[in-house]
Design brief:
Layout: H1 8-20, H2 26-37, H3 43-55, E1 59-63, E2 76-80, H4 82-101
Antiparallel strand pairs: 1-2
Helix pairs in contact: 1-2
């Protein structure tokens, strides 16, 4: 695996692609980010990040056939690769381990978790 460190946005994208399954195309990904985490994301940022994740080997993509609903245009569907699943599990394990080690009293001033 190339470049196994993930940024917060990259992790978010991998999770959204995982959630959307066979509907993980750029417009749907953008909508899901907005709905799930109330975050506005430009198409340019999405395309750049998805391309970077594909270059790292964490995503694969393929073009679908043209559809009438899209005015005859095709769309690129993204899927998690085996390496993407591995790195996402590694990040989850790291975060869970760190949360388990964090003293509960240190967050009391900010509310309970």
């Amino acid at each position: 695996m190339k470049g196994t460190n993930l940024g917060e946005f990259e992790e978010l994208l991998l999770l959204i692609v995982l959630i959307l399954e066979d509907q993980a195309y750029v417009l749907k990904i953008q909508e899901e980010i907005s709905n799930q985490v109330q975050r506005d994301t430009s198409m340019g940022a999405l395309h750049a990040s998805l391309t970077r994740l594909e270059e790292k080997g964490f995503l694969t993509s393929e073009m679908t056939g043209a559809t009438a609903e899209r005015g005859g245009r095709r769309k690129r569907i993204y899927q998690l690769s085996s390496d993407g699943k591995i790195v996402l599990n590694q990040v989850r394990t790291q975060r869970e381990s760190l949360w388990q080690q964090a003293p509960k009293f240190s967050l009391d001033a900010y509310g309970t978790i």
